[in-house]
Amino acid sequence: MTTLVLIPGLVSDRIVWEPLAETAADMFPVHHADVSTQASITEMAQSVLAAVDGPIIAVGHSMGGRVAMEMARIEPDRVKGLVLANTGHHPKREGEEAKRQAMVDLGNESMEKLADQWLPGMLDPARVSDEALVAELKKMVLRAGPAVHERQIRALVGRPDANAYLKDINCPVLLVTARQDVWSPISQHEEIAAAVADPELVTIENAGHFAPVEWPAETTAAIMEWLTRRFGDDNG
To answer: Measured by CB atoms within 10 angstroms of the end CB, which terminus of the chain is less buried, N or C?
Structure first.
């Protein structure tokens, strides 16, 4: 039976995909991946693959999407589908390392300050004043802590260039974008869709980079529709 593997992003944990996990559990075995201890995107992918037996559908948010793509590169026969939400495929950009180092320095000084500076830009501007949403995400960032933050930032800075192998990804791919995501814009997902063999793209309206947390019901519904249509018979 195919396992649905849920992969969080930077300083994130299982709350990102918990609504999907609860809904999908009637259809798939579900595994929440831990990508908090590895030093590179490739090591994260290898660790997740080693934690689960048999075929996989990898669902990744942000950094987790990069891990999912790397899993498909390493073991294409096992990865039967990809859901890539609010993610990217480009290698390190000019000037990126210095900007990320500044965030590492801030996180090492105070993860609370980091959360206060980082989170507003990750949300639809209309949701920045949503105290409950921001508080939930801030608690998540604080749970991660500075060591995980720095380790994951280093992994992202040294990330593989997914452009080199997107053309070789032949499994079905669902790209989940968000209208207000300025960090991983819709155009970035359209580029991935143009490169892979079997893409579909869905946009969550009125959402930013944390679409699965900002609008969990809408994000879950979009993913479940695709999973049921493309894989329902396989696990039925």
So the answer is: C
Hunting for tokens 């939400």 — which residue is that?
A: 85
* pLDDT (tens digit per residue) in 72-106: 999 999 999 999 999 999 887 888 889 999 999 99
Complete DSSP assignment for 173-201: EEEEEETT-SSS-HHHHHHHHHHSSEEEE
According to the model, what pLDDT value does residue 232 have?
A: 84
Q: How far apart are CA 44 and CA 34, in angstroms?
A: 8
Backbone angles phi, psi at 175, to 5 degrees: -100, 120
Which burial class, exposed, middle or buried, applies to 34 when counting CB atoms under 10 A from its CB (0-12, 13-18, 19+)?
middle
Phi then psi for residue 116, to 5 deg, are -65, -35
**Token pair listed for 100:** 């990320």
Q: Which of 89, 82, 85 is nearest to 5 (CA)?
A: 82
Integer Cα distance of 236 and 223 in angstroms:
17
Q: Rounded to the nearest 10 degrees, what angle do helices 131-157 and 96-109 cross at?
A: 120
Domain boundaries, the chain: 3-92+160-235, 96-155
Name the token pair of 58: 């990898």
Query: What does CATH list as the number for 3-92+160-235?
Result: 3.40.50.1820
Q: How far apart are CA 146 and CA 15, in angstroms?
A: 19
